[in-house]
Amino acid sequence: MSLIEKDNGRKIKIVDTTLRDGEQTAGVVFANREKIMIAEMLSDLGIDQLEVGIPTMGGDELKAIKDICNRNLKSSIMAWNRAVISDIEKSIECGVDSVAISISVSDIHIENKLRTSRGWVLENMAKSVEFAKKNGLYVSVNGEDASRADLDFLTEFIEVGKQAGADRFRYCDTVGIMNPQEIARSIKTLYDRTNFDIEMHTHNDFGMATANALAGVEAGANYVGVTVNGLGERAGNAALEEVIMGLKYLYGYSADNIDTTKFKGICEYVSQASNRQLPIWKPVVGENMFIHESGIHADGALKDPHNYEAFDPKEVALERKIVIGKHSGRASIVNKLNEYDIHVSPELAGKILEAVRATSIRLKRSLMDKEIIHLYCDVIAKEETISTEVVGG
C-alpha cells in the first residue's frame, strides 16, 4: 500500500469512494468500462483502497465489481454493505479483499429510520463483522450519521466492533453538519477512548468536507475517505485532490507515493464520465489555479511565482499563464509583447494598456494574444501619425 507520511512516522491512508458514494450523486451513472478505467487510474495514482460499489445491487454493479477485482490492481478493493449477512455474501462472491459494513448510529436514524434500538444496532453490526472476518475480509465498520450520534454510544459501538474483529471505524459526517473544531474534539475523544483506527468520511453540505477531513486526521484519524472532484450525495464529499495536497502543504505530510501529476487526467476523466463540468476555479486542478491577470498579482508572479502560488503547477500537470485583460498592469503588457520579440517602453506599455482595458470591458473577457498584437499595432500607428503631424506642422 502507498502511504502519506509525516516526518514523525505517522502514516495516513487514502480511501477513495468515487465508484460508490461518488456515483450516488443524483443523476450520475458510470458505465462499467468507465468504472474499470477509474479504478485503474486511481490505483496507478497510488490510492490505498478503493470502495468500488454495492454488490447486493446485482446486475451490472456486481459484474463491474468482479471485473475490477480481476484486474489485480495495486489498491485494496472494498465493497459497501449493510449490516446484513446476504450483502456480505455477495461481496465475497465478487472477490473483494475488504468490506465496509454500514449501519446508523445516531438516535435520529435509529428511532426514525430503522425504528429499532441501540441494542439491535450493536447486535447486527457484531454478527456481520464476525461473519466477514470468518471469511478472511478486512472490515471497516461504518457509523452512519456518526456526527449526530452520542459519543458514549459511539465509543460502545467501536468497542463492540473491535471485539467482533473489525479493523477500523468509519466516522461518517453523513449530512455535513460538523465544523473542524467540533470534529477534532469528537475524533480525539473517540481515539483516546478506544485507541482504534478511524477513517474520516465527510460531506460538503456547508462547504466543510475537506476542512473537516483534515481536522479529523490531525485529531487522530489515520484513514481519510475521498472522491475525485468531491462527487457524492447532495453537495458531495471531501475531494481527493484537495485532501492530498492539503495534507502535503498545510500539514507537512510527504506524498511521494502519490503521483499528483495524474490528478488532472483523472479529474477530467471523472468529470466527463459523470457529466459534471470541472469548474475552472476548482481548487488544485482548476485551470484558474495558476492563471494571473490582475496587475499586482501578475507582476509578483513574474518576479517570483511563490509570491502568488502555493505550489508549483507542474505538480498537478498545469501551467502558469499570464492573461491580459481589464485588470492587467504595464508589467504584464511588457512581458507579453516580449514573448513576440517586441520591446516597448513603460510609457508606450501604458498606452497599450489603456486600449487593452477598453477592449476587455467591451468584449467582457480577457484578450487573446493576436488581439493584443493588433492593439499594439494600432497604438504604434497612432503614435506615428501624431509624430508625422507634429513634424509636418
UniProtKB/TrEMBL annotation:
Keywords: Acyltransferase, Transferase. Its EC number is 2.3.3.14. Residues 12-264 form the Pyruvate carboxyltransferase domain. Pfam families: HCS_D2, HMGL-like. One of its GO terms (molecular function) is homocitrate synthase activity. PROSITE patterns: AIPM_HOMOCIT_SYNTH_1 (PS00815), AIPM_HOMOCIT_SYNTH_2 (PS00816), PYR_CT (PS50991). Belongs to the alpha-IPM synthase/homocitrate synthase family. PANTHER family: HOMOCITRATE SYNTHASE, ISOPROPYLMALATE_HOMOCITRATE_CITRAMALATE SYNTHASE FAMILY PROTEIN. This is Homocitrate synthase NifV.
